[in-house]
Design a protein that fits this description.
heterodimer; A: 255 residues; alpha+beta; Uridine Diphospho-n-acetylenolpyruvylglucosamine Reductase, domain 2; Uridine Diphospho-n-acetylenolpyruvylglucosamine Reductase, domain 3; Enolase-like, domain 1; 3 domains; five-stranded antiparallel beta sheet; globular; B: 169 residues; DNA polymerase, domain 1; 2 domains; 5 strands; 39% helix
């Protein structure tokens, strides 16, 4: 359970990180909090040749309201997000969801940008971003661009980020409608068997596909979930229906 | 790669490979074997330490990432006396059997108690949800932590220490 050998460099800025990504090529990986990447490396599921540590870049850890959006820097740690009064008052869905993300020691180091770029289909945050219609800000050597959450998650652990791009911030449009969040897991902090993050009539399910899946509240639940060691496809489909019903009731929506 | 960090109050310089995680660094380079390694992928909590005052899994932090940081292990928390009462409560309540999870349990419990002077049992269980114990069934561990919280509140009230229990001042 030890990671294979790799080289390690530190980036001083987002620009520097992009340059290093260009220099080291596709075998390099960005290291932020490392709470998903390092387990994958210890399990030898990932073996990057170079880790580019972006954890010390300053200026990417802010949380603030900017105009009609909540700005969250990519290096904001989970614990900071969970305890942020700004987040709790403007996007309480995130505060509720963060209680379900892993355990205190993991939350103390994991970052929102790392979580989203990792694109784990069982993770809470990607589904929240989909429900909230968030915008992802990315930068590369050739410039910056914005990616809608709906276009960001492209497959299992896959995102729309280019190999030389770095996620710098997330913008959530304000104000947000009423929310609902629940997940069904065997134990506190475990990956969800099925979860649902809803913002108004936008219902985003997680742990039901290779990426989070968004439905409008009026649309039928057209899911084809996977069977794995945790649950069968039929059980997942049933639980997704249960969560959808609970959300509709909680949000006062017509079934 | 050369790193310099503070471990239990002592400044340490070392040359390490990037792949070395902090848990192995503490155990193999510094002989601080109180930090236990169980799963080595962040699930069991046996390797819990404090980095710059916050909980961390030593198996999920590279030694090179800890460069310039303040690391505290169970040896440091024991020697300073910071958790002497908690350790005694674990002893009194039989909150350990094999002891493998105990250093991580103590550090995680102390992390909760410094933030929440009066946690209920559910809060304690939630805070320890990332620390596995295969011996005790957890009840005795929760007992010890709740007992320690009560005793600390009592002592704070008696000594008139402000800020711990506002209702008494």
């Amino acid at each position: 359970m030890k990671a294979p050998a790799f080289d390690y460099v530190r980036a001083d800025s987002a620009t520097d990180a992009c340059a290093l990504l260009g220099q080291y090529g596709p075998d390099a990986r960005l290291l932020a909090g490392g709470q998903s990447l390092l387990p994958a490396m210890n399990l030898r599921l990932a073996s990057p040749s170079v880790l580019i540590d972006i954890g010390r870049i300053t200026g990417l850890d802010g949380i603030e309201v900017r105009g009609n959006a909540l700005h969250i820097g990519a290096l904001v740690r989970h614990e900071t997000l969970l305890r942020s009064a700004t987040v709790a008052s403007h996007v309480p869905l995130l505060t509720e969801a963060m209680r379900h993300v892993a355990h205190p020691a993991i939350r103390a180091r994991g970052t929102i940008g790392g979580n989203l770029a990792h694109a784990d289909p069982a993770s809470e945050l990607p589904a929240c971003m989909l429900a909230l219609n968030a915008a992802f800000h990315a930068t590369s050597a050739t410039g910056a661009r914005t990616i809608a959450a709906g276009d960001f998650f492209t497959g299992l652990f896959q995102t729309a980020l280019e190999p030389d791009e770095i996620l710098t911030a997330i913008h959530i449009p304000l104000p947000v409608p009423n929310f609902f969040f629940q997940e069904i897991a065997r134990r506190s902090g475990d990956y969800a068997i099925v979860g649902l993050a809803a913002s108004g009539e936008r219902l985003a399910f997680f742990s039901v596909s290779d990426r989070p899946v968004l439905f409008h509240a009026s649309a039928p639940l057209d899911l084809n979930p996977q069977t794995d060691l945790q649950a069968t496809a039929a059980m997942r489909l049933h639980l997704a229906g249960v969560l959808r019903q609970r959300a509709m009731t909680a949000l006062g929506l017509q079934p | 790669m050369n790193i310099s960090l503070t471990v239990n109050g002592e400044i340490i310089g070392a040359e390490v490979e990037p792949r070395l995680h902090l848990g192995d660094f503490l155990r193999e380079h510094l002989s601080l074997t109180g930090t236990h390694l169980g799963c080595e992928h962040g699930v069991c909590g046996a390797c819990t330490v404090r980095i710059d005052g916050a909980l961390a899994r030593a198996c999920l932090v590279l030694a090179v990432q800890a460069d310039g940081c303040v690391v505290e292990t169970i040896e440091g928390l024991s020697d300073s006396g910071e958790i002497a009462d908690l350790q005694q409560a674990f002893h009194d309540r039989n909150a350990l059997q094999c002891g493998y999870c105990t250093p991580g349990m103590l550090i995680a419990a102390q992390d909760l108690l410094v933030r929440d002077a009066a946690p209920d049992r559910e809060t304690v269980r939630e805070h320890l949800s990332g620390n596995y114990c295969r011996c005790t069934g957890y009840h005795a561990i929760v007992d010890a932590i709740v007992t320690t919280a009560e005793a600390r509140r009592h002592n704070a009230a008696v000594s008139g220490n402000p800020g711990i229990e506002p209702g008494h001042h």
